[in-house]
Write a structure and sequence with these properties.
Layout lengths: L30 E4 L2 H8 L8 E8 L5 H14 L5 E3 L10 E4 L8 E2 L7 H11 L10 E7 L7 E8 L5 H16 L45 E9 L11 H19 L7 E7 L15 E7 L9 H16 L8 H6 L6 H14 L7 E8 L14 E5 L8 E8 L2 E9 L5 H20 L3
Length: 450
């Protein structure tokens, strides 16, 4: 039987190649977010002479690789996209200031200035004098310099425009950059356990009245130029008796109050009541931490009679009751008046003029100073081959009428203190004297009976 030959089957025509998928174009208009209350008040009161910067200074034992750090920090910005923002343009007739959220930085963020003698002080001066602009995303800058005081080490200077962001939020972004750079866990350590409920405010003795609080007396070494000066110091973390009813934050508060009372007394000022502004931050410290200006401000009052160096133990207990009650308050970040002042009823130009006028009128009643205690740095800030941070300083703006801010943080078992002042009020020698007084009274809180 002869096999029947079949004609060959023609090959199937190839399927047409799929058309390339065009890239998704970025949105024509960036996402917009109205300024929150804190941002708007700060925006109204901007001054070129005294920029509102937050400075974060991180010391590492080793030197970071420039390319790796730049890549890690830029990736950290993308992981916290709320930091990628710029102020949308607009005139004084608009009803709101608005942030535009961008998909990437508008400008290079990480820089590596020349090192050498004086590099550290130059970076500090720049951190106080040059705020990152609001019209370019993000409103932060990271300068990295070799540490002349510790050969083989480097210092990261993260400079923040305080109109947009605060220190704890930007420290969270830096912790993410450390994790991306070093490949090691930088998850936050658990927060210290505190009692769940504070005492009722009405049950705590709170000095009231409308008396003008004490302000820091001018020093003898003031400078004729506006701007901020700063002094940083490393001190032991104050000891606290086991079971003491007060916290380290209360010890810092008492040391600050007594420091200013003594400073003013030595300059012939009559004793006056005092109010110290204290930021309170209830945000979580994990990767989902809200980014922005997230602290609320409370004011801790003292009568002139309470600021007695011979009764520090009693002052610590009173301060502890007040700070605990104030932290437990549920109130807007800057109070109800600020929320009313920023309501979008009048154009921003009118609201700005009104805010500045009220600020000037309220100057004599502004609090004595601001104490911002960051507390124990919750992140390892481990940069792999460059090592873990062994010192972290923060500083907050110090515009008049306060003219002085005190900022503390603890790292590696040490207390890192930054005194920042308006140069038209104090000078470097005055800052050194205030540091000595702060150290003296902080040590006195260790010796007071609980």
């Amino acid at each position: 039987m002869t096999a029947v030959e079949r004609p060959p089957v023609p090959p199937e025509p190839p399927e047409p190649a799929a058309a390339p998928v065009p890239p998704v174009p970025p949105p024509a208009t960036p996402r917009r977010v109205p300024f929150p209350v804190v941002d708007e008040i700060a925006r109204h009161c901007l001054q070129d002479a005294e920029p509102e910067t937050v400075h974060i200074e991180v010391h590492l034992p080793g030197v970071v690789d420039e390319e790796r750090l730049t890549r890690a920090f830029n990736e950290a910005l993308l992981r916290h996209p709320r930091i990628l923002m710029r102020e949308a343009p607009g005139g004084p007739g608009r009803l709101r200031y608005v942030w535009e959220l961008t998909a990437a930085p508008d400008v290079p963020v990480v820089a590596f200035p020349e090192g050498g003698p004086g590099a550290l002080e130059a970076a500090r001066r720049r951190a106080l004098a040059e705020a990152p602009p609001l019209d370019a995303s993000p409103p932060v800058r990271l300068d990295v310099v070799r540490d002349p005081e510790r050969p083989g080490g480097c210092v990261l200077f993260l400079v923040v425009n305080h109109t947009a962001l605060d220190g704890p939020a930007c420290l969270r972004v830096l912790a993410t950059a450390a994790e991306l750079y070093g490949g090691r866990d930088n998850a936050p350590a658990p927060a210290p356990v505190r009692a769940a409920d504070g005492p009722e405010r009405d049950a705590v003795p709170m000095p009231g009245g409308f008396a003008r609080p004490a302000h820091v007396a001018p020093g003898r070494h003031r400078e004729p130029h506006p701007g901020n000066g700063m002094l940083v110091a490393e001190l032991p973390v104050p000891k606290r008796p086991k079971g003491a009813p007060y916290t380290v934050n209360d010890q810092l508060m008492v040391a600050t109050a007594l420091m200013i009372a003594r400073w003013n007394r030595d300059r012939g000022r009559a004793p006056r009541p005092m109010r110290i502004t204290m930021p309170v931050d209830d945000r979580p410290r994990g990767a989902d931490m809200p980014i922005g200006n997230g602290t609320r401000l409370v004011e801790v009052p003292f009568t002139a009679a309470e600021l007695d160096e011979r009764r520090i133990g009693e002052l610590l207990r009173t301060t502890a009751l007040r700070t605990r009650a104030l932290k437990a308050l549920d109130r807007p970040q800057l109070g109800h008046g600020a929320a009313l002042l920023t309501a979008p009823v009048l154009p921003v130009g009118v609201r700005a003029a009104l805010t500045r006028a009220l600020r000037r009128a309220a100057g004599p009643w502004t609090s004595t100073t601001l104490l911002s205690n960051i507390g124990r740095i919750p992140y390892a800030l481990d940069f792999g081959d460059a090592g873990r941070a062994h010192a972290v300083w923060f500083s907050a703006p110090a515009r008049l009428p306060r003219g002085l801010t005190v900022t503390t943080a603890s790292t590696a078992g040490r207390l890192h203190l930054a005194l920042r002042w308006s140069r038209t009020l104090l000078g470097p020698d005055d800052g050194a004297r205030l540091r000595d007084l702060f150290e003296q009274y902080l040590h006195a809180t260790e010796e007071a009976a609980p």
